[in-house]
Amino acid sequence: MTSLAPELTVVLPAIILQFIIPLALVCIAAYFGARKGAERALRDKREDGE
Predict the structure, then answer these.
(1) pLDDT digits (tens, 9 = 90+) for 24-49
(2) In the prediction, which pLDDT does 45 show?
(3) 24-47: string of b/e by CB count within 10 Å (b at 16+)?
(4) How many CB atoms sit inside 10 A of residue 5's CB?
């Protein structure tokens, strides 16, 4: 690991975090958004059927 420039050991995790954190947030938001949308659709369908 000594051949690697010290800057890289700092920059690489920063770059990875910059990509992974927004991606994770988007995935979480999409998951909860889809779940809420599905629940609302099911609820509406149930109300229409009554």
Answers:
(1) 999 999 999 999 998 998 888 887 76
(2) 82
(3) eeeeeeeeeeeeeeeeeeeeeeee
(4) 8
SS3 per-residue string spanning the chain: CCCCCHHHHHHHHHHHHHHHHHHHHHHHHHHHHHHHHHHHHHHHHHHHHC
Token pair for 13:
């995790």
Output the CA torsion sign for 30, 31, 37, 38. Answer: positive
Q: Which two tokens stand for residue 5?
A: 């420039």
Report the length, in residues, of the chain. 50
Q: Region of 17 please: left (phi>0), alpha (psi -120 to 50) or beta.
A: alpha
